[in-house]
Amino acid sequence: MRAARIHGYGDASVIRYEEVPRPAPGPGQVLLQVAATSFNPTEIALRSGLLHSMFPLDLPHTLGWDVAGTVVEIGENVRTLAVGDRVIGRIDGGGTAAEYVAAPADSLVPAPTAIPLAEAAAIPLAGLTAWQAVFEHARVTPGQRVLVNGAGGGIGGFAVQLARHAGAKVIATASPRSAAVVRQLGADRTIDYTAAPVGDALDEPVDIVLNLVAISPQRAAALVPLVRPGGVLVSATIPVEPAPGTPVTAVRFVARNDTTQLAALVELVDAGAVRVDVAASRPLADLASVHRDAEAGRTRGKIILVP
Ligand SMILES: NC(=O)c1ccc[n+]([C@@H]2O[C@H](COP(=O)([O-])OP(=O)(O)OC[C@H]3O[C@@H](n4cnc5c(N)ncnc54)[C@H](OP(=O)(O)O)[C@@H]3O)[C@@H](O)[C@H]2O)c1
User: Fold this and answer.
1) Cα 150 to ligand 1 centroid, rounded to whole Å
2) Which residues make Cβ contacts (< 8 Å) with residue 213, sequence separation at least 6?
3) Which protein residue's CA is at the shortest distance from atom 33 of ligand 1?
4) Which residues of 11-36 are buried (b: 16+ CB within 10 A; e: fewer)?
5) Over residues 163-187, mean pLDDT
6) pLDDT confidence of residue 119
7) CA of 196 to the centre of ligand 1 (A)
8) What pLDDT shows up at residue 65?
9) Number of Cβ atoms within 10 Å of the Cβ of 58
10) Residue 123: CA atoms inside 13 Å, Cβ hemisphere, count?
11) Which residues line ligand 1 (CB under 6 A)?
12) Angle at 255 between CA 252 and CA 260, to 5 degrees
């Protein structure tokens, strides 16, 4: 089979789409024929070696955390899945940027039936991160005003929809290329972050800011006064430290895998309450070029990669 692997850390040229042995499912695993994986920008940091101390890799390493695929083989002790099942999941050890992956059965949930299987690869990592930002850390309640910073990104698209689903009024930052999509996803209003500081466009502070974009410490600090006293600032990227005495709770979090939440997301997709907005579908052979595009700021939303 073919897989997108790195043999060492470095720029996007270290990614090779090459012939490798097809894995066999171990105990507790199933073999999936991959319909698609999706690109997540954190993998740029993994590929370049920036995450080496936190997540040392056994090289060569096959990239890819998200998967949508079909079960083609069952390992020992797997009782919950059968050959032919269509599933999605976030596979923390990677390996989904390939034609086949051996995946732990307990990381997988049934794929949505309302959208094509390959498109569902856009859901796991970005959807779970948005879910945990909205429901666990911000605990959005009906009627709250929520500012989603980075709504044009993969996580942002889910966060806008989940905050709306929770009953919030959503204000979202988006550049002109993303503004229309972000409004279609449910933002009541968009602010063009490329035109002026976000605060200049807000008439009053919000209850919650969700920061879903890697920004400078200065830009992060400028988000604090946008939150009303007693409000919450949740960041999926840079930690934000309000000055002592500032009555704003700031939380930075790293999303974990959670199949109950993933199944709940699938249910919302099938019910038509959450749209999976796939900005582009590219051949997996183009993964290095997708990394280059993302590093140059040329990508938006979720990109799926099809082997
Ligand atoms: N904490 C966690 O567990 C966790 C998990 C996954 C990812 N992350 C991190 O979360 C971040 C977002 O991930 P993602 O997959 O959503 O990224 P993404 O899809 O690559 O986000 C790209 C989008 O960011 C927007 N953007 C860029 N600069 C901006 C700015 N200054 N203000 C507002 N929006 C800006 C752009 O929107 P426009 O199109 O509107 O220009 C662009 O479309 C990444 O840094 C990633 O590493 C964290």
Assistant:
1) 5
2) 149, 150, 153, 156, 237
3) 150
4) ebebbbbeebeebebeeebbbbebbb
5) 98
6) 98
7) 18
8) 98
9) 6
10) 33
11) 40-42, 125-126, 129, 149-150, 152-156, 173-175, 177-178, 193, 212-215, 236-237, 253-255, 294, 300
12) 135
Q: Work out the number of other CB atoms within 10 angstroms of the CB of residue 297.
A: 8
| Main-chain dihedrals φ then ψ at residue 164, nearest 5 degrees | -65, -45
Q: Which residue's CA is the closest to the ligand 1 atom numbered 17? A: 153
What domains, with CATH codes, occur in the chain?
2-123+276-306 (3.90.180.10), 126-252 (3.40.50.720)
Beta strands in 143-259 (DSSP E): 145-149, 169-173, 189-191, 206-211, 227-235, 249-252
Q: Which atom of ligand 1 is nearest to the CA of 177?
A: 39
Nearest 5°: the CA angle 53, 54, 60 is 75
Model confidence over 125-149: pLDDT tens digits? Answer: 999 999 999 999 999 999 999 999 9
Sequence length of the chain is 307
* pLDDT of 182: 98
